[in-house]
Amino acid sequence: MALALFKSAITGITWPALPDAQAAQRLALLWQFEQTERWPVDVLQHHQLQQLALVIDHARRTVPFYRDRLAAWHNSEAPNMEQLRALPLLTRRDIQDAGPALRSTAIPPQFGAVHENRTSGATGQPVQVLRTALDALLWQANTLRDHYWHQRDQSLKLVAIRALGPGIADPPQGITAAGWGAASEALRATGPSALLTLNTDVAAQAAWIRRHAPGYLLTYPSNLAALLAHFARAGERLPGLRAVLTVGETVSSPLRTACRDTLGVAIEDAYSSQELGYIALQCPVSGQYHVMSESVLVEVLDAAGNPCEPGATGRLVVSSLHNFATPLIRYELHDHAVAGTPCACGRTLPTLARIAGRERNMVRLPDGTSHWPLVGFHRFRDIAPVRQYQLIQRSLQSVEVRLVCDRALTAGEEAQLGTIIREALGYAFELRFVYFEGELPRAANGKFEEFVCAIG
Questions:
Q1: For residue 2, what pLDDT is reported?
Q2: Helix, strand, coil fractions of the chain, as percent rounded to 5
């Protein structure tokens, strides 16, 4: 980090910069992150468990939901992982059913203002949790960490296309700002930014992006896929673009390849949730995801509840290390990930090789097994003019195939697409083709999933 680039809060002093109190807190966290991300694994985990013990004790004493659940917990010292795994999982249904009983009756005042976070409900089970100003501070510090890891040039323009409320950043103009947001602007002068609502036609999005000539583009992976198809058809690139930043959805290997082939830049992904903040950031060296261990403790567990070996896919269970307002202890996200290996970058933060997706993205077969639907969607365009697709599993025997196409497909084209789909899903599903004009509908939160298991 170059101090000469930081803002000084003292008039007449530009170097060395003397930051204000808020900026100093962010710098202090960044400095600590640079140390802790290279600690020995056992030392890092010990500090995580030590901090989590404070959350557990606070929850047992001040949160009605946890009084019975943690009644037998009397550890004054940090637990080990075996003791932690003896605690029951916290589910979304638990959070919904508990309501206010999951909120602390004595939130520490030193944690700052309390605010409510509502999840988008992408899993079909929206939840509400309280978070504090401390959680926001850690969110901003990890945002800065992401920028520094990837050595982003913040003098360039950042443009973002996201799901927003009605009337916010509508086309054709969107809205503009002088900087990259509170996290960055507290420390340094940045380039400008621009924001556009996701509820904008893809061609209009592309024209808006071209007008703003961004250094960095941020959006959801599914929206990026539509933009890439548009730019590929037009034979266009975006001069000056350094990288595409993705959030909110799973990034596939074909999408990464398409981004490089079409725009000549890489995807830099972040994995987060409204309830927990940043969970993992993509490593600029290996491409794996490093867990933000200073904020969360992440477990990747198999069906029996045991830790997954590297390369195995398991469900993600996450504990927040600093939420004393709505403690989330061993919270099951209903997301899955592939356990990673030690990283070539030298950081010792735990790794996830890949974020595999949500539980409802798994195809369920009549024999009781489930697996990730790695369908060869890239082959669709070789058969028919398919612009957008979505598969929804309606039962153990049937799948609805939603398509947006340039024209009506022939029976022969449907049959060829059906062959690809059935081979990839591993079962001879009954397929029902449904056609849409323009774009396929998104969830209320703006997110889009290519495969959804809608079996109750």
A1: 40
A2: 30, 25, 45
Q: Phi-psi bin for 329: left (phi > 0), alpha (psi -120 to 50), beta?
A: beta
Give the H or E element holding residue 216. strand 216-219
Domain 19-152+242-358: give its CATH superfamily: ANL, N-terminal domain (3.40.50.12780)
CATH level 2 (architecture), domain 363-453:
2-Layer Sandwich (3.30)
373: tokens are: 């639907």
Residues in the chain: 456
CA dist 444 and 447 (Å) reads: 8
**Which pLDDT score is estimated for 281?**
98
Q: What residue type is 212 in one-letter code? A: H
Name the packing angle between helices 253-263 and 221-234 (round to 10°).
40
Helix (H) / strand (E) containing 36: helix 21-36
Residues lower than pLDDT 70 in the chain = 1-4, 75-77, 120-126, 358-362, 370-378, 443-447
Rounded Cα–Cα distance for residues 150 and 275 (Å): 25
User: Rounded CA gap, 27 and 19, in Å?
Assistant: 9
How far, in Å, CA of 250 to CA of 29, rounded? 28
Distances (CA, A) of 445 to 121, 278, 437: 7, 18, 21
pLDDT computed for residue 122 by the predictor:
47
Residues 6+ apart with CB under 8 A from 337: 289, 300, 313, 314, 316, 352, 353, 354, 355, 356
User: What is the spatial distance between Cα 429 and Cα 451, in angstroms, rounded to a whole number?
Assistant: 14
Name the residue type at position 307: P
- Predicted pLDDT of residue 249: 85
Q: What ranges do the domains of the chain cover?
A: 19-152+242-358, 363-453
Task: Report the alpha-carbon distance of residue 334 to residue 358 in Å, rounded.
Answer: 6
